[in-house]
Design a protein that fits this description.
Radius of gyration: 18 Å
Shape: globular
Strand order of the largest sheet: 2-1-6-5-4-3
Helix content: 25-40%
């Protein structure tokens, strides 16, 4: 009897895992779009909620910033985004952590110098307090 219950429970969990992963996939895709919209709109309140307090933000230039440093750069106008367009997104969920790999086009300016970059982007999302937060950002320029 115990063996039957164990086998039944394992079978139910095995069937539930793909559905849970599919749900996380959609949640992360939505989080990616929310992040891009908030950054392009300079919606600092939304960005603050999206970013984890322990954020590691690595730009394609090699500059690595904390959440505080990145937010200061945005608020001062030293870093401005006019658009972030996802060309593709691949998501892999691992419980309360997910990795999103994207090709994006980012436009804006850094210290007054305009940029229009095609980038490969890697985001690490963690679910904290029921919400997905961006914990790590890394971009690489594409030709």
């Amino acid at each position: 009897m115990k063996q039957t219950i164990l086998i039944t429970t394992m079978a139910l969990l095995a069937n539930f895992a793909p559905a849970r992963a599919a749900g996380a996939d959609e949640e992360i895709r939505k989080a990616e779009k929310s992040w891009a919209s908030a950054v392009a709109a300079a919606n600092y309140a939304a960005i603050e909620k999206i970013l984890s307090d322990s954020l590691i933000y690595a730009h394609s230039t090699g500059i690595v910033e904390s959440k505080g440093e990145y937010m200061s750069k945005l608020k001062s106008g030293a870093q401005k985004y006019t658009g972030i367009e996802h060309e593709s997104i691949t998501v892999r969920a691992f419980g309360d952590t997910a990795v999103a790999h994207s090709n994006v086009r980012m436009t804006g300016s850094t210290k007054g110098q305009p940029f229009d970059n095609k980038l490969m982007m890697m985001h690490v999302w963690v679910k904290q307090g029921g919400n997905w937060q961006l914990a790590a950002h890394q971009t690489t320029r594409l030709p």
